[in-house]
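Sample 1 of the test manifest.
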Amino acid sequence: MSHRIRLGMVGGGSGAFIGGVHRIAARLDDRFELRAGALASTPERARESGAALGLPADRVYDDFKAMAIREARLKDGIEAVAIVTPNHMHYPAAREFLKRGIHVICDKPLTATMADAKKLARAAEQSDALFILTHNYTAYPMIRHARAMVAGGELGALRLVQVEYAQDWLAEPMEEKGLKQAGWRTDPAQSGGGGSIGDIGTHAFNLAGFVSGLSVDALAADLHSFVPGRRLDDNAHVMLRYAGGARGTLWCSQVAVGCENGLRLRIYGEMGGLEWPQEEPNHLWFTPLGEPTRRITRNGPGTGPEAARFSRIPPGHPEGYLEGFANLYGEAAEAIRAAQAGTAPPPELHYPGVQDGMAGMAFIDACLRSSKRDGAWVKLA
Amino acid sequence: MSHRIRLGMVGGGSGAFIGGVHRIAARLDDRFELRAGALASTPERARESGAALGLPADRVYDDFKAMAIREARLKDGIEAVAIVTPNHMHYPAAREFLKRGIHVICDKPLTATMADAKKLARAAEQSDALFILTHNYTAYPMIRHARAMVAGGELGALRLVQVEYAQDWLAEPMEEKGLKQAGWRTDPAQSGGGGSIGDIGTHAFNLAGFVSGLSVDALAADLHSFVPGRRLDDNAHVMLRYAGGARGTLWCSQVAVGCENGLRLRIYGEMGGLEWPQEEPNHLWFTPLGEPTRRITRNGPGTGPEAARFSRIPPGHPEGYLEGFANLYGEAAEAIRAAQAGTAPPPELHYPGVQDGMAGMAFIDACLRSSKRDGAWVKLA
Amino acid sequence: MSHRIRLGMVGGGSGAFIGGVHRIAARLDDRFELRAGALASTPERARESGAALGLPADRVYDDFKAMAIREARLKDGIEAVAIVTPNHMHYPAAREFLKRGIHVICDKPLTATMADAKKLARAAEQSDALFILTHNYTAYPMIRHARAMVAGGELGALRLVQVEYAQDWLAEPMEEKGLKQAGWRTDPAQSGGGGSIGDIGTHAFNLAGFVSGLSVDALAADLHSFVPGRRLDDNAHVMLRYAGGARGTLWCSQVAVGCENGLRLRIYGEMGGLEWPQEEPNHLWFTPLGEPTRRITRNGPGTGPEAARFSRIPPGHPEGYLEGFANLYGEAAEAIRAAQAGTAPPPELHYPGVQDGMAGMAFIDACLRSSKRDGAWVKLA
Amino acid sequence: MSHRIRLGMVGGGSGAFIGGVHRIAARLDDRFELRAGALASTPERARESGAALGLPADRVYDDFKAMAIREARLKDGIEAVAIVTPNHMHYPAAREFLKRGIHVICDKPLTATMADAKKLARAAEQSDALFILTHNYTAYPMIRHARAMVAGGELGALRLVQVEYAQDWLAEPMEEKGLKQAGWRTDPAQSGGGGSIGDIGTHAFNLAGFVSGLSVDALAADLHSFVPGRRLDDNAHVMLRYAGGARGTLWCSQVAVGCENGLRLRIYGEMGGLEWPQEEPNHLWFTPLGEPTRRITRNGPGTGPEAARFSRIPPGHPEGYLEGFANLYGEAAEAIRAAQAGTAPPPELHYPGVQDGMAGMAFIDACLRSSKRDGAWVKLA
């Protein structure tokens, strides 16, 4: 077995944002090697993009199906594929690889529609290949430490989960100004029924559940689109009721001027409180009831194996978004190698999978249902 | 006319928190002088408290009605009274002074019940005396500057108002441990139907409206009490729809471990965003669309007359809660002197009055109604 | 004995900054009452200023000597006097009151010249009256807590004391633009030989010693004036060697653009480190060796009697510069009352006195000597 | 020409810190490929380390000289080598590669001794190969933006440069506890005459000069070792005089408890001030004289091509230490490719080279000379 996992990519041609992120994340710890790609929707752009990445011409494909078929047959064909297209392509692409036993690392949200999501879930179930969903924020070291603290009872029984994800890059009608990133994200055909709620709300929802260990029982949502002409929500206010009695709110916005990537999670229990701001991800703020607040630093005093495993360098040397993303790729690599070896995956792996993707879809769906019913409480399916 | 306004106080005996704050606020700028008091509910404690404050024995009263009657007759009787009792005493006390032409400076919320609120509003209307409600956060210099910025159009049309007020001092059942402050605040008979929503939610609601200039049209609320046995809400999640189309959320909590007095206001418009954290009140964060965020400091570059009027010392020399409270007393003094002189009050005064108090009561009432109807949207009366 | 101490003031007429601060500080806790003043250097301005403050005309004086003489004879004459003039007037004014048994609360630095300082020290020694020097930063609650922590050994043996005090208000030649505050501070005749080093460097020096409990043995200084035409230093770099082996640096500047009142103290010992930023004075940052950093809040968890004694309101409700200044007045009041009663002052008092003033003068003197000798190490006299 | 530059490595075997950083930095943007290594000082550890990195056995060498000789002859031999050994090995290793035309990317400080530094400078001069010194902090995007702002005159004529670099990992005698990183750094034979001043002081010195564009004319230093038995300084206070009249201080420490990697640069000019904290590297704080402070974010509003070129992802998605290091590798790649093509390197490259290394050695040397002369001002050679 070679040192690196052979990786293919669907989407992520020139001009894309997240494709480049996946490539860096895959490369950062030297666990993957990009070997093939169906990088764009037109043959020319696919070839240009492949060449720009140094891929050999015979491993650059015009479409993902052709790639899946041929790579599955090659002796040194790809072992895993990263799917980094707009949402509506996730299912059709993932299906082709899953059914040929090629592991799938797929961008979130799971799909554009619930119907597709169910089909994808079934495809994943029926395949021996793994399905990893890149809710990348779950793989920040301090998030893993926070999760371990909650699971270890350091906060006591949880009462409140407050999560927000505020951006401002869609404060103006960027989709009308030709910004590609804005175009598909505000197009129901490509994104599905959720705008901000699908693009970033699902991240916030997933992260809150990941750290708290709680599942949402019901929610009441107020979705809105502030920019005239926009077809999908660019702001959402959501009240949450968790199974077991905790409550919370989720706010996501793409029109909050001054917010760049303002994902922030706060969790309060009977015995303590936690706060983590994504924009300063190397710090976790913890207050034990009746004691001063502590600033816990990545890989610093008071952290344990969860943070250490995901830290490359000492505290004070900031790691960030790309390293967090790479941590998820690291877990994917470990899981894939275990699957190939037929052994159990290491117990410390916690990458999100298809069930997390289904939960995210249920969240989008519930938000849309609640909002249509003027914010009535609805159960998560 | 003397240099200082002669002030009486109802409530605020030893052991109280807010009474001492009012006294410092009244004294700080030398515009008031405490001359009389009905400081406690028992004659002994009233006398002890009066003596401790250096009041002459004949100006210390067993009850507020006696004080109102006698002081109104004295040549050097009090010109104004501060009412700093639990909520249910606001109306009975205020009535006695208002009807005798003594100006009233009253703690929030307006009253414990809507019925009392309406009577108090009528009493205030029928009196020549002024009624000032101490929503003290409105008088922080940077809040005044923020208000002026919004009014001046620097944020463009508003879209979002996010306000939160999180504390943790009621994370445990302090009312059962004999903490007086906790006792009356969690007692419906003394506080009214709102717990955290009345105690701090009204502050957040008032501040959001004060700065944004917007009024809430409808809200959906989820009130909850996390501490077993507690009779009033200690946490509230509220979604807001403002007249004119802006939306927002209000979160208040008294069980969020690690939060001391976490009042924070964020306002986003088409052209800019603002953030103000009460715990670092000398800074206002402003982002014009497409430009870097600016840290505007109290009385520093870029501030105007609103902040300057309320600043005693240069930027970098922090002013805080007591100074903010004193600013409101300063406005009260100016308004009282104008009323006494029969002249119009200076146009820059913006102290909250009985209408703001009524709005706060409507907010509490709407929260209670909505929460009982499982978070349905309800109109503010 | 009355409730309040009768206070006079020398200097502090209209247009002055620090006079107003002293008056608020004296009034805030109701321990003092301004009864007389020699507020300005010309009779007219003295009278106008007196009237503006509501002083009766017969207690407004044209000069401080007349005030000292008459007030000492009055039955209800002042018990204490605040001296808030430019530095060169401190000694002549203080002398008149000290020799008549009137307690002196005097602004820093002690005097403009070392000769005057020695005379003032002698006058203070020979008087029964107290001399309190308003190094106000020593009276912030978190500074008292920090001092107690160091004294209690929580940092272990100290190694490093890093203190800085950076401002920017003299980045331009404000003294040529008619700013009164700038005028006398850059005039050797009124200020003495030290510019920034006297005005703010002495504060930093004093605070470092106050908290660390260490005394400087020797220093090496590089004083400089950046603004063309300025007659006194507007920036100073100083290396410090403390008795006992600790080392440190002191930087003060009045030309550091973007710094408002950037006094910041950091102390490092074998077992822990402390940081306190004056501009956010309600927080003290403490790191025990090998543990996460803690944010200790004023009057919050983990603080003791030193902070509690100087806190009026709960944590999260910011107190600031004026409250810190008032704390010093509070200690003055307690010391004065004890002196009047002939009893020992309470042991918890730590206000700076004439010896601290002498130390500050020795610091200025050493800086000037070292700088003239091109930064050679010089002993503090 | 292949897509990636073939890279060798000297040092960086298992247990090392900086070797892993170089490998990630080289890989992150896919411009380099590790092909050979002399990774450790014993043959076994060298082989183990090589195997762990997936190097073929015939490209793993027992010593760097053998590697240089053989790789220079191979058709696909390495084009560049990263030298990540303790300081005393920099020169002997670099020499072998430089004289064979293999580009050198070398860790700082340049060498352990001035004699070696001169020899290395000569070797670099005589070689056609490039020499890149990894003062990695120069390649943070906001540092490049700061440099451009200063060069563009946005701060006006500079007055002050305040730089500090505080850590705490040597607060205890870690070298006696078997920590390898501490061992060689506190050993004069391996590190040279400077302890903290060489390890981190040179970074601070270099960064200050890089951004300010100023060169130090003279300095006065107070070096000290606080930990008993330590053979090299673990703390240094340095006063700086820049050519042209600016002044500054440099503080570096490895015993400041609570400081992790506290590199912080502040620069003040006549027209503005800048502050950059390495631990939150995505923000640059800029104050134009008389205006509010701005928080400039990496790749955000107000930044130009310098920051954009070094940003992989949008603002709000934090990049950190590894990305900064990778930026330097990116410049190395561009310079190497230009050298191989015989073309001029792109004008925007600003990687530190042998002259910067010589300046750092002169700084260490001056600090040692000054400190021996009790802090006398000494010229930089």
